[in-house]
Task: inverse folding
């Protein structure tokens, strides 16, 4: 899995490319933590190129969500692919990890 | 639906790169078979990833695994009616109950693996006999 981090006005975007499994999940969690520590707790995980996710990846997203909320921010998803959407639905995590059509739309006008 | 069975076997040390190798092999097998639906691919790969990660995590935490590494092998098949996987490893028996696996509370960061695997499969069995054997079966939906 490759991971790119970009900062934008009002949020930062983390983009995992490939499979988000136990091999890459700790790196995602670290990047989210770094953003929060640097003062950016409004985070979008852009899943446009995340072809697959399992429970390790979900755990990293939940960990990031909790850490962002503690820092008075939030972690939101964008552009989830069909396989990722299926897994979120199967686990009912689509209720807590909200998916937006684009990274820009995730924090909208907030 | 044709009656051909597509098979692939792999073996290696129970470490995280093995999980990725298995997922790569499974993707290649779906491509070769050519007619596996997106839903079947996603859910079967998901279950395979969960079980493989569980094996690796258990192996890396065990004294044997830390000393000399645990060996693991897997046979993957794509059949006309079913998708199957059979993992065998030589780690100490794992303390798992497949039947009792259930999803943890929503905001838990771990503990979902086996519950997810059972949801994505029609059968998941775990046997301890000369190592650990996991058998996974998903009936193809379409």
Result:
């Amino acid at each position: 899995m490759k991971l790119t981090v970009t900062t934008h006005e009002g949020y930062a975007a983390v983009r995992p490319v490939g499979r988000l499994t136990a091999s890459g999940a700790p790196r995602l969690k670290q990047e989210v933590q770094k953003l929060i520590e640097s003062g950016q707790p409004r985070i979008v995980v852009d899943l446009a190129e995340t072809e697959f996710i399992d429970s390790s990846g979900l755990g990293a997203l939940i960990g990031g969500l909790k850490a962002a909320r503690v820092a008075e921010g939030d972690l939101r998803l964008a552009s989830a692919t069909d396989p990722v959407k299926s897994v979120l639905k199967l686990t009912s995590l689509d209720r807590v990890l909200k998916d937006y059509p684009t990274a820009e739309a995730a924090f909208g006008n907030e | 639906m044709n009656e051909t069975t597509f098979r692939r076997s792999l073996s290696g040390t129970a470490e995280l790169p093995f999980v990725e190798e298995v997922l790569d092999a499974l993707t290649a097998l779906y491509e070769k078979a050519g007619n596996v639906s997106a839903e079947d691919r996603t859910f079967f790969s998901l279950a395979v990833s969960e079980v493989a990660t569980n094996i690796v995590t258990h192996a890396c935490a065990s004294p044997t695994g830390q000393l000399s590494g645990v060996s693991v092998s897997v046979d993957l098949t794509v059949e006309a009616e079913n998708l199957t996987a059979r993992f065998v490893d030589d780690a100490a028996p794992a303390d798992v109950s497949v039947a009792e696996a259930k999803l943890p509370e929503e905001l838990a960061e771990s503990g979902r693996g086996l519950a997810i695997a059972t949801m994505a499969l029609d059968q998941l069995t775990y046997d301890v006999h000369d190592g650990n054997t996991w058998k996974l079966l998903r009936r193809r939906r379409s």
